[in-house]
Every structure is written in C-alpha cells, then in structure tokens.
Amino acid sequence: MTLVDHLLERIAQDGPMNVADYMTECLLHPTFGYYTTRDPLGTQGDFITAPEISQMFGELIGLSLAQSWLDQGRPDPFVLAELGPGRGTLMADMLRATAGVPGFTDAAQIVLFEASPTLRDIQAQTLTGYQPRWVDSVADLPEAPLFLVANEFFDALPIRQFQRDGTGWRERLIGADGNTLTWGLGPQSDQVALKDRLDDTKDGDLVELCAAAIPIIAVIARRIGTHGGAGLIVDYGDWRSLGDTFQALHGHTHTDPLDKPGQADLTAHVDFEPLAIAARAAGCAHTRLTPQGVFLERLGIANRAQSLAATLGGSKLEELVAAHRRLTHPDEMGNLFKVLGLYPSPSSPPPGLEP
Ligand code: SAH
C-alpha cells in the first residue's frame, strides 16, 4: 500500500476530494504523510527555511519578542511559544540570543505546537535543557501572557481553491483517471465566505481559502488580547489571495503537486488579510505587513552580520554574506516573505514592524 493507492481508494469511494483534504492526507497521513515520516528541512531535504539559513534570523526574532516583553513590564511567568518549530533551530537561536536579557528565559515556559512525531523528537534533542512542552491543539496554550513565533507554519495548512464562474464559484477538485490523479472542477455554487470577492474578481479568477488558519489565529489573538504578549507570523504570501499558489517542492525543485503525493512538500501562499481580521475580532491589534528584509534590517541584521564576520574567514565568511543577502534581498526572500505582528491594543508593536 502506498499513499497513491490510499488516495485512489478514497476517491473511488467518496468521489473527488478538495485540495484541503488532499493536502492533509499528503502532509499528515499517520503512515505515509510527508511531515509525519521525515525531516524535510535543510540542504539534504526538500526545502530550506530562514532559521536553517542563518542563526541571525532566530536571534533577531528572539530579541524583538524580548524587547516587547520588557516594554510590557516583564510578565512572569509567560509562555514562549512556536507553531510548527521544524528542527527547533529558531527556538534554540531565540533562547541563546535572549539569555542576556535579565529574567526573560527564567520566566519563559516553552510551548511547542507540532503535528509530526518525527519532528517532535528532533525538537526535543535541539532544545535539551529548556524543558519544552508540546500541545496537541493551539487551544491548549496556557491562559498566560503569550509571546509567539510562527515561521513557515501557516503555508502548510490546508487550503481550498475556488474558480469564479459567473456570480458563483466552482471548487477545484482532485479525481482519478485510471491510476492517475487528475484535476477537475466541482459544480457551481455560492460560497458565503467568498461573497465580498465578487467585487474584486472576474470570471475565471481563482481564490484560495485557508479555513484552518482562522481558529488558530483567534486563540492566539485572544491570549495576547487578554493576558498581553506579542506574535510574529512570518511567511510567504500577501494581502488578499488571488491566483493559484498551490505548490510542491521536492529536492529543492518545484514539481507537480499531484505527482509525488507524500514525498513532496505542499504549500500555498498565506493570505494575511483574513488572519488580521480574525486577530482584530478576537481583541488583538495587528501591524501592517512588513517585508522580511525590511524587518530584519530594522532589527540590525547588518550589525549582527558584521560582528559574526569578525570571527570568520574563507568559505564561512562567504556563507555568512550569502545568508544575509538571501534573508533580506528583495530578489530573494526579502520581499516575498512578510511579517504580521500581533500585540495588545494599548502596547506598542514589537520592534522591526510597520506600526
Ligand atoms: N518553522 C520551521 C519549520 C517550517 S516547516 C522552520 O522555519 O524551519 C512546517 C512546520 O509546521 C513543520 O514543523 C511541520 O511539521 C509543522 N506542521 C505542518 N502542519 C501542521 C499542523 N497542521 N499542525 C501542527 N504542525 C504542523
């Protein structure tokens, strides 16, 4: 039995499935899922993320959250949380960089939200000595001040795709032709969630919805709104979804998302607009989107790179220069990736962000 067999069987029984169900099966199936069965990160894996490119990313995120903690009167205890922590590299870099902020790491209770047992094991190894705790649901985040980061987490959540057809929408579905997975369109229907999108789309346009993101953001925003704290959501995407952004990465190259189910990373660009709306509805202020490059430059990545460079030479120095460029340059990750900041209304936003 392979994941393809399982998917074909499911389609034979229930009919074509939507993209969200396909993504969930491919990424999180208990036996065949992409995240459940492997560590996909790094040069040997399928893709590389900002914390795996350079320690500077996690260090600066940590210092931004620690400054926010100081600004809010050093709440003790507080929860330092991460969604989808991958190898635990970002959290480890944050904790190392903030060790010099008096009281911060002592007051922090580290909570991780991670679906993959394989990655939980790796996170436990990376964070030995810090006693992290894992929650199975974001709703289990303690009722306490919450300082939180999520990097490339929301892009892994399942989306649905809808193609405009007149004054209605047809959902993109995945069916089968013999033993091959194929694309199709469902029947035309109204979509309550897309009512306001009839104003800014035309026939044939495609929009994406990520329903799973909303309850997660709502819980986070409620904790921050009620108890204080701050959230930094970093991901590729933009404000208001338009067009097909569903993509697959295998061995650092783009592949057809239907081609290697369970063996390729599947993501979609994050639509930050509904996240911001949900955050506001749950009683939390949010910033405008800040491009990652601008965010890191404001936090002093150039100075940090210079001080690291002082101890390096040869290929290590070249790697550092390349990493700085990759994280910040508009032609690389600098513009594609954005940061959305969440904070309690009376406080100021974490440093580095647009107000
Ligand atoms: N933040 C890390 C890893 C990004 S990859 C980094 O920047 O390197 C996406 C992460 O989210 C992985 O840890 C993956 O296992 C986790 N993840 C994906 N879908 C999830 C879900 N539905 N619930 C919890 N964790 C999930």
Structural class by sheet pairing and helices: alpha/beta
Small ligands present: S-adenosyl-L-homocysteine
- Using only C-alpha atoms, the radius of gyration works out to 21 Å
Report the total helices.
14
Gap between N and C termini: 52 Å
Q: Which quaternary structure do these chains form?
A: single chain
- Helix content percent band: 25-40%
- Strand tally is 17
Instruction: Name the poorly predicted regions.
Output: none
Content of β-strand:
15-25%
Mean pLDDT: 96
What's the main sheet like?
9 strands, mixed
Shape type: globular
Describe it.
The structure is a single chain. By secondary structure, the chain is of the alpha/beta class. Helices cover 37% and strands 24% of the residues. It contains 14 helices and 17 strands. The protein has helices spanning 3-14, 19-28, 34-37, 50-53, 55-71, 89-97, 104-107, 117-126, 213-227, 272-281, 292-298, 301-309, 314-328, 333-336; strands at 17-18, 78-83, 108-113, 133-135, 146-151, 160-165, 168-177, 180-189, 206-209, 229-238, 247-250, 253-255, 265-267, 270-271, 285-286, 290-291, 337-343. The strands form three sheets. Strands 2, 3, 4, 5, 10, 14, 15, 16 and 17 form a nine-stranded mixed sheet that branches. Strands 1, 6, 7, 8 and 9 form a five-stranded antiparallel sheet that branches. The termini are far apart. It binds S-adenosyl-L-homocysteine. S-adenosyl-L-homocysteine binds at residues 27, 35, 41, 49, 51-52, 84-86, 90, 113-116, 119, 151-153, 156-157.
